[in-house]
User: Which sequence fits this backbone?
């Protein structure tokens, strides 16, 4: 197979298939057909099928909860967590628990039922990124919440139940384990080296060059040396920043361009796969802004998790990240 | 949705849908058709399609690598790790790495192409469990290896590429992250309480009773209060033991019976879903045998991981474990 590699931030190991690295055509292609057009609650004219909107980018003269929007934010009709109530923590014997308080919102990225990020123009992508920032900023002011996650599921294999392009926002009353491990790992590195581990990672990836997929003034996109999944890519700001919601206008614009670019490359290279992406960012009350550095992980859904991964926390990566980057660079 | 619950050993959070808990029929059913009969490398008569066998349970007078076996252990023809060579650790800048040394074996559980564990009798299941123990014991004597994982993937949605019933063995040159976290969590608990956290968990589950699925002289099977997945179940030995390979004959027999029973219940209740199971056990060089307690996690594949799970390490469980246990108890 090849090499064992250790993630320097969270300590997990991956097995990378460097000896017999799979090509894009070696993965089974999904068939993707649209089934929900005409009954979609996210399409213009069906605004009443969602809870009342929280925010929207609207054309002049249009009214809330009516057509005339380009991006629309609504509460999730089937939320994972409930926005109402105080947090009550308790124990049942061995187990700590808490009532299910949080926020769960939907950002409908476009009025078009058939478009996804690669089909939007740069200004439309900027509007989406602006909503990521404004919702995260707004929810961070709610003192009950400690972490705001922005993520996207595209395609049923990636867990999307609705096919109309949308991202999601979840606000949590605690810092999740995966985030806490990243914070701890990056703080430890900072204490030893007085540098941000992600800034060092950017320098190393740029110097090496083999895993770089794309770059613009503010962002580097690369296939991480310690990818968990085949054709996984990371978008990392070249400027040091812990909380993505603090981006300025130019940075937001460049993030929209980079997201559009990498998702388009994935579509061309891998045949429009289901995918997830999520923003790793600092918790709302985090103080060590010098050691953490926000970034996005983009995971095309090409393989299934199996017993080995569940039983160990190892991941098996069938395409060498350097090869993945080469294919994605060529898919322009 | 319901409740947030924290795993007391590894610290991850799950969101449990206690308010609108899904029934078995609410999950999409898989269609399961056999396609590989007649070309299967694990069927009798095709022994030459695998590497030479390591062990087998053979009928008198049969020869290695020929028909006449009931359980057969072979090296994986496409191993995740290579058995040959010394371990060489090195660093590339930020990243620690190691050549891909390990073992990867297949335990073919039955000569029948169409049977799975629920179709085997108790003696046949005992033979499978015996092979789990003998392979783990044998590989543990190789000083290069620190952890031996036994696991099973059934169905393509659970990552199985071959449909003939088989388990897998992987030996690793390091203790994996998920295992290390379990060891650390259970050691911390032992230091505070002078008791094994898993023994306490068994006592609590038995006292509560609502999540118990089945029990025999040596094993309790229950839907954990902090399940990661809908209809996940754990098999836990009622006797304290850190390393499963140390089971005596009676315990092995009872484990085989319990595995057969719970997999049969899953099949009846959930419509023959794809599933993974794996044995959580102590590392080969582990000394704190008083604080760790081996157990098996069984995960039917009913939903897909999505961006929220990847971005946080949270899990969303759509069926309350108490309801899952009720349905599985009834599926007798």
Assistant:
């Amino acid at each position: 197979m090849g090499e064992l590699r250790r993630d320097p931030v969270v300590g997990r190991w991956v097995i990378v298939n460097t000896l017999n690295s799979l090509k894009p055509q070696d993965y089974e292609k999904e068939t993707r057909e649209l089934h929900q057009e005409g009954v979609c609650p996210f399409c213009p004219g069906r605004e009443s099928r969602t809870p009342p909107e929280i925010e929207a980018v609207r054309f002049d003269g249009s009214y809330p909860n009516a057509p005339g929007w380009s991006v629309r934010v609504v509460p999730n009709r089937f939320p994972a967590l409930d926005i109402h109530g105080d947090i009550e923590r308790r124990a049942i014997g061995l187990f700590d628990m808490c009532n299910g308080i949080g926020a769960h919102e939907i950002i409908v990225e476009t009025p078009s039922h058939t478009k996804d990020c690669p089909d939007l123009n740069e200004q439309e992508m900027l509007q989406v990124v602006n909503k990521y920032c404004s919702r995260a900023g707004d929810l961070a002011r709610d003192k009950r919440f400690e972490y705001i996650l922005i993520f996207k599921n595209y395609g049923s294999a990636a867990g999307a139940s609705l096919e109309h392009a949308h991202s999601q926002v979840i606000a949590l009353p605690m810092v999740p384990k995966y985030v806490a491990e990243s914070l701890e790992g990056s703080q430890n590195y900072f204490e030893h080296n007085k540098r941000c581990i992600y800034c060092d990672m950017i320098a190393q990836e740029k110097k090496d060059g083999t895993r770089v997929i794309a770059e613009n003034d503010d962002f580097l996109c690369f296939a991480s040396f310690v990818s968990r999944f085949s054709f996984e890519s990371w978008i990392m700001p070249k400027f040091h920043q812990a909380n993505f919601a603090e981006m300025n206008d130019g940075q937001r614009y460049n993030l929209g361009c980079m997201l559009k670019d990498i998702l388009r490359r994935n579509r061309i290279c891998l045949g429009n796969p289901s995918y997830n992406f999520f923003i790793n960012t600092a918790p709302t009350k985090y103080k060590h802004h010098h050691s953490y550095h926000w970034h996005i992980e983009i995971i095309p859904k090409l393989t299934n998790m199996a017993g080995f991964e569940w039983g160990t926390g190892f991941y098996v990566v069938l395409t060498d990240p350097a090869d993945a980057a080469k294919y994605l660079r060529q898919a322009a």
